[in-house]
Design goal:
Layout (H helix, E strand, L loop, with lengths): L1 H8 L4 H10 L4 H12 L4 H13 L2 H15 L3 H17 L1 H6 L1 H9 L7 H10 L4 H34 L2
Length: 167
């Protein structure tokens, strides 16, 4: 299976793979930066910039379109259940946003752990009613911090591996 994925992606430039990995929920910067640095053989600067750019792409549409989309789709029971699950999960994860709004949103997005990131931050902003013009800069700052953290961790880890194994 992995061989097929590698073969499928073999003709795509590394910077575009990095960009698209960063756009995906759950993966975001936590996957795109390590992939770019280790498998894509990109510089840390390119890895950082392409990942940040990709991670920003879905944020404005999520912030602007989630409310009308949820209202439209909640008319059907299956979608209503999905949105109930999604919003309940976001409420649990986003208590810090409810309490601290701008700073809480930065913190939620900046922590590079599963269940955090730009997608979760945008959902939390919607669920807790954080205004667009307050949510967007908080998410941007959080993404930049997360990018710095992930890049630093991967660079430090790859340097340690190179030192240990003499690569």
């Amino acid at each position: 299976m992995a061989e097929h994925v590698v073969e499928l992606l073999s003709g795509i430039p590394a910077h575009w793979i990095t960009f698209f990995l960063a756009m995906l929920p759950v993966l975001e910067l936590r996957a795109s930066i390590p992939w770019a640095l280790l498998a894509g053989d990109m510089s840390w600067q390119s890895s950082f910039l392409w990942s940040i750019a990709g991670n920003f792409v879905p944020i404005v549409p999520i912030l602007l379109l989630l409310d009308p989309a949820a209202s439209f789709f909640r008319r059907w029971k299956i979608f209503d259940r999905f949105f109930e699950w999604l919003f309940a999960r976001t409420r649990r994860k986003g208590k810090i946003v409810e309490r601290y709004e701008f700073l809480g949103l930065i913190f939620l997005v900046a922590i590079p752990l599963p269940g955090t990131g730009a997608w979760t931050g945008a959902l939390a902003a919607f669920v807790f009613g954080v205004r667009f013009w307050l949510a967007l800069p908080a998410i941007v700052i959080g993404v930049l911090i997360a990018g710095i953290l992930v890049t630093s961790i991967v660079m430090g880890g790859s340097t340690a591996v190179q030192a240990i194994f003499g690569l």
